């Protein structure tokens, strides 16, 4: 009686139907539409998108920014996670809570803070002009740097959390052991810590990378129409140009990029046997 | 790395992560007409002004209602799934769980666009039901994951014990399983609520004139206005999230489920 | 105790996902009897018990309880109690509510629930613990709650799945006596599943030894202990030295043979000696002492012989045989259990 297949099926059926009808089917149709041409099917829409200077530029910018954010998050993440793991367990909980807290706050609010800091009359410009570093306020907003900073702040906590749990599971004393064997900090990191925490790094990296690729709010607010990324471009194509053909192409590119990143990074996570 | 050095690095990281919120709060307390930091004089006027704006009030109510409704439906759909995954051999188990978790993999903006084009327009569906469907679909995987985590710690033989003492399957579930995964369900509710409330890309194409969620309304507003009201509103939202998280962490240990 | 079968399993076949675990099992249990299902893990004893409880639908065969066919009766209508190996107490409910659970399902009046729960809790010696949660109790106390919870509804049959295996040795002994007392007091029919032969011998009116989903031997504890019906049962109940008998020789599993010390009955297929039945220091055979263990009253010897290792036991008062020394030993058929097939 506790192994009935039909009962199990009945329990998942409502969710399966809901997800299929309310989510999967429309998404698949949309993705399929990207192959739809005026006369039949083909990859014409993709070629058009890539031949369009703006499309190509936005695509590469998105990949570049996401990669840079991931890299920066990994470097800062290791330092922060190591420092957290080094603290006493009762303080560790508080620190992890402080890392998680920003994740719960509206990304609109989180991004808006950078507007206040980086704007023409913002915190940084006030500081710069008052210190006499520049006569004129600098244009900090609507730059790739602004988007990079916004994305990094948005997604860094995900990397730190992944690395904290990976470092917590590090076998005890491997680091002191490596050091008594004469390994310096750099050797210890690359030969011991990195291989043993690779899975956590990959989990965090996947979250940060795919999160950055599919970010909308940050490029919309901090990049504007000057620094378009795939999602803001997609929004523009639909709401301004009513161009569904290229919107579906962008949608498909977003989908493929996230899936490919997931795949690729997961492969990196499973250690090869030597 | 010495521990003092580690502490310094950590302080810098937290300054980067949390500092901006302090700046927003300060900017929201400005007495001036335009956004600036440091604020021009101190006043709470913009915090009150936020409540006067009709579009903020309406979209706040919609966002709250949407978040509660979508999370509840996601739990109604997701709890049985989590339970089935924990207790039954599922036909096509791997494919099934891929299907059920697919909403987390698909970029949210695509979901909104797809629903708009192939469900909302053809079926002439209202905006609110469409938002409700999209948000629910997005939350089902969270509900399944969080509830599964708390079911994993629960032995299945207590249900058998209940059945042998005369309970039917449904009673056994409600009397022995549900009370023991209550915290997990509450944690899933809170995570779902926060996720839906903060969600932007899914809602982007599914909002229209007069009907908008709060974050979208904020994005609109900040494009055209440069006064401290958004800072005040952001500060309020941040404080609300902090309160929710602190209460949840205190009573449920929320961070175990994130 | 009436002689008619109270619980009757006829041609019972059980399995998970079509893989058979128990095949065509026949077993009758009388009312008020305490029967132990004894066997190593994977022998089908727990599977059989779960089928009786209704937690597993049989692939074939019939289960009759008190003259009524219950094969298709759902588990919650069978009124069969089960004490789980893990106790399976409801973690969110107090001791009182755990015990009251079954009574509440039967819509028993409130005052009767109070009275019967108090009785059951008193019977297992836990009066005063009613408000505690399971996690605030020791293992032994949890075990008692599980027992009270199962018997308070006055089940027609009580099944116990290795109920003592999670307790320490001293508690186990205490609970064993307790269980026996309860069974006498309540006159309840019990089926007790265990892999511990000592427990089965001490508790049961009758023991059913199972192996690979089949019954190997069935009988009162004395019969199982003294006259095992198969070499498997012999090994399971402590005959450490079991040899096949063929052409006047003792044959070991490794193919080696020793001539029989004395002639045996032609129908004997196996001879089995407990360690203390092996003659040590005299006899026709020789072996080397591999090791000794001092057991207090006696000393146990492991002896390497041509027919493999022999386990022998001698009173501690006798002179010891040191490890490494060669020692004479005997396997007199008179002190062995003779197994006919």
Automatic annotation (TrEMBL), chain A:
Q: Cross-referenced PANTHER family, in alphabetical order?
A: ABC TRANSPORTER PERMEASE PROTEIN, INNER MEMBRANE ABC TRANSPORTER PERMEASE PROTEIN YDCU-RELATED-RELATED
Q: Which InterPro entries match?
A: MetI-like, MetI-like_sf
Question: In which broad location class does this protein mainly occur, judging by the first location in its UniProt entry?
Answer: membrane
Query: Which family is this protein grouped under?
Result: Belongs to the binding-protein-dependent transport system permease family. CysTW subfamily.
Q: Where are the transmembrane segments?
A: 12-32, 65-85, 92-109, 145-165, 177-194, 201-224, 244-265
SUPFAM superfamilies associated with the record:
MetI-like
Topology relative to the membrane: Multi-pass membrane protein
One Gene Ontology BP term is: transmembrane transport
GO terms under cellular component: plasma membrane
Establish whether keyword Transmembrane is in the entry: yes
Which superkingdom, per the lineage?
Bacteria
Gene3D superfamilies in UniProt: MetI-like (1.10.3720.10)
Q: Where can this protein be found?
A: Cell membrane
This protein's UniProt keywords: Cell membrane, Membrane, Transmembrane, Transmembrane helix, Transport
How is this protein named in the record? Answer: ABC transporter permease
Q: What positions does the domain ABC transmembrane type-1 occupy?
A: 59-265
UniProtKB/TrEMBL annotation, chain B:
Q: Where is the ABC transmembrane type-1 domain?
A: 60-248
Tell me the GO BP annotations in alphabetical order: transmembrane transport
Localization, UniProt:
Cell inner membrane; Cell membrane
Q: Does the keyword Membrane feature in the UniProt annotation?
A: yes
List the membrane topology term(s).
Multi-pass membrane protein
**Keyword annotations from UniProtKB, A to Z:** Cell inner membrane, Cell membrane, Membrane, Transmembrane, Transmembrane helix, Transport
Main location group = membrane
Question: Sorted alphabetically, which InterPro entries does this protein's record hold?
Answer: MetI-like (IPR000515), MetI-like_sf (IPR035906)
Q: Which GO terms describe its cellular component?
A: plasma membrane
Where, by residue number, does the polypeptide cross the bilayer?
60-86, 98-120, 126-144, 185-208, 228-248
Q: Name one Pfam family in it.
A: BPD_transp_1
- State the family named in the UniProt similarity comment for this chain: Belongs to the binding-protein-dependent transport system permease family.
Q: What is this protein called?
A: ABC transporter permease
Which species is listed as the source? Marinimicrococcus flavescens
From TrEMBL, chain C:
Question: SUPFAM superfamilies from the entry?
Answer: P-loop containing nucleoside triphosphate hydrolases
For this protein, the record's SMART domains field holds: AAA (SM00382)
- Which Gene3D superfamilies does its entry note? P-loop containing nucleotide triphosphate hydrolases
The organism named in the record is Marinimicrococcus flavescens
For molecular function, the Gene Ontology terms on record are: ATP binding; ATP hydrolysis activity
Task: Show the Pfam families listed in the entry.
Answer: ABC_tran (PF00005)
The molecule here is called: ABC transporter ATP-binding protein
State which residue ranges cross the membrane.
none
Residues covered by the ABC transporter domain: 7-237
GO annotation terms (biological process): quaternary ammonium group transport
The major lineage groups are: Bacteria, Pseudomonadati, Pseudomonadota, Alphaproteobacteria, Geminicoccales
Alphabetical UniProt keywords: ATP-binding, Nucleotide-binding, Transport
Name the InterPro entries for this protein. Answer: AAA+_ATPase, ABC_SmlMolc_Importer, ABC_transporter-like_ATP-bd, ABC_transporter-like_CS, P-loop_NTPase
